[in-house]
Amino acid sequence: MSPKSGQHAPLPAAPVPESPDELRNVALVGPSGSGKTTVFGHLVSALLPEHHLREADPERSTELSVAAVEHEGIVINLIDTPGYADFVGELRAGLRAADAALFVISAADGVDAATTLLWEECAAVGMPRAVVVTKLDAGRADFDDTVAICQRVFGEGVQQLYLPLHGEDEAIIGNLGLLSQQIYDYSSGTRQVRDAEPRHRELIEGPRADLMEAIIQESEDDTLLERYLGGEEVSLDVVTADLLTAVARGSFHPVLPLSTETGVGTGELLHLLVSGFPPPTRHELPRATTPDGDPMPPLRCDPSAPLVAEVVRTTSDPYVGRTSLVRVFRGTLRPDTPVHVSGHLDRFSGHELESHPDHDEEERAGLLSSPLAESARPKSQAIAGDICLVARLSRAETSDTLSDRDDPALIEPWILPDALLPVAIRVARPADEDKLPAALQRVVAEDPTLRLEHNAETHQLVLWTMGPAHVDLVITHLRERFGVEVETETVVPALRETFTRAAEGHGRNVKQSGGHGQYAICDIRVEPLPRGAGIEFAEEVVGGAVPRQFIPGVEKGVRAQLAKGCLGGYPVVDVRVVLTGGKAHSVDSSDQAFQTAGALAVRDAADQGAVALLEPLDLVHVVVADEYVGAVMNDLQSRRGRVIGSVANSSGHTTIDAEVPQSGLARYPIDLRSISQGTGTFTREPLRHDLMPGHLAAEHLPA
Prior knowledge:
Layout: E1 23-29, H1 36-47, E2 65-71, E3 74-80, H2 88-97, E4 100-106, H3 113-124, E5 129-134, H4 143-154, E6 158-160, E7 162-166, E8 172-177, E9 182-185, E10 192-195, H5 198-217, H6 224-229, H7 236-248, E11 253-257, H8 266-275, E12 288-289, E13 308-317, E14 321-330, E15 332-333, E16 338-343, H9 345-349, E17 359-364, E18 368-372, E19 375-379, E20 382-383, E21 387-391, E22 401-403, E23 410-411, E24 421-427, H10 436-446, E25 451-455, E26 460-465, H11 468-482, E27 486-489, E28 496-499, E29 503-511, E30 518-528, E31 535-539, H12 551-564, E32 575-584, H13 591-606, E33 611-625, H14 629-638, E34 642-648, E35 653-661, H15 668-675, E36 681-691, H16 694-697
Parallel strand pairs: 1-3, 1-4, 4-5, 5-11, 6-11, 31-32
Antiparallel strand pairs: 2-3, 7-8, 8-9, 9-10, 12-23, 13-14, 13-22, 14-21, 15-20, 16-17, 16-22, 18-19, 18-21, 24-26, 24-27, 25-26, 28-33, 29-30, 30-32, 33-35, 33-36, 34-35
Helix pairs in contact: 1-8, 10-11, 12-13
């Protein structure tokens, strides 16, 4: 979402809210292909008809887009989020910047499982939500059926506010307002409002009664429902006020029809955004601490307080440099202001992140801009509750906190799922070898869902991603933005070797070539130990066969050989090596000679066929809808996994615990998504190494 030139019409001036109450931050969410980007474009075009957004393919949208527009004296920051699962990081960033969510649902496709889970997440934090039903012009679309599905899946509080109005050719030409009993007609090319005709009033009589009763149930006046059911006429102003209050507190969720073909319904949606969704002052703000972790008082959306803001997204553009999308939670951000930059993802993730080291530093904010999708307009300040673009924050990364230098703060970052699909990369051209580290550092800093790992054992550079589309996007960014061509390769598991039974080895290092020679003979016994025991060394030498001063040399040689491996060059683990005997020479023996003899003895013991390969296992926790439990368990077993338990919860989901070889998890994020229809999630953690079947081990050994 970096600002670019190329607009044919002059950009309108940036809207300037005078207080947080004049702001609305709304994220458009929903499945890919539901029409989010088209709705986003209709809303912007309705308020800025001279500004045409660049056409985007909703099916391939990978980045969030923000447009600040103004309607009825309210500044609306519209945030269009990607719907594809691989780009959940952009979705989470959009929700972090927003105070309300607009769920875009296709009438032709219904509600998928991933959207249901997202609704439940928003409900858990009390985020206000509304539903826009799109694709009403599709042949199989049915508004009433879609509303019924939303009510069944999303639960109580989902109620339609309008009915779509069809023309003679069955195309959507307007909406019928259930509360206002007015028609909003777009057939002339402009939005015309008139009272509903008698035939329309008959059509909406039943749905209107259901809506009125549902709204009154949400009223803070406990006597209102009883009076209404008793036949008392309730003022429309009272009902409307109760409706807006219920929407703002997240207990009532209006449904609106909108034609993605013509934009019918855009005016009604804009009215809901400014009058129904809450300002930032009514949205609970994230928790904050000092950079050292000491708690701070709860944040308040106060423009006059010390600055606390968060970098929601960072982008790098070859023309304008680095740009940060920032949500201001407290205080006011102005251009050229010194700020404290604090990032401590390690603290909140619970483990060290190689790609996002902790940092606390100071720098000066650059120029501020108001985003308008692909463009940006100069902005003099961003008050608490607002969203802006900030130039030249060279040290700030996505999820970092910007705060007052004299009162530094750290905001608890938003929750992101772990990147679970690994892919190994290497440069395609030797000339790019020196450019790759800096390019990767920039890409990873912009995307907290991307994790970089330098595997010291396999010597591979591994990117942990959210899915195959995420991999393709990273490779494209490396090529187009940094001129670095990379190729992918299979991730190599970090194998080990071990002895499966006791074996004896003889190491003879006797060389006489004139002058000082080498003389060292040692006998060892190698015994297997339990998994995870490591390496032990002991000696049972009798009668000084190996002088005491040379025993450390034997141990050093033994350990060096075990680290090199005996079969395929993989480290040997979980063994005890016992020095049982040997011989020395008064002149030619040395520490170095016994190091070599110790290594030879280990190799001799391995030649007896007692060595096998160990593969890494992960402990996997899969959470899936109950209806997919059987399929998931069968799939885990097909990956040589061992299910060790499962626990069902009251929400219709089951957690499955299993031990699975890492080689069986190479594509698991993709396959689980397919098996569970998008409802499954999982975590993985290294567990231990265990014996690899012989027919598979042969693939990892020299021919």
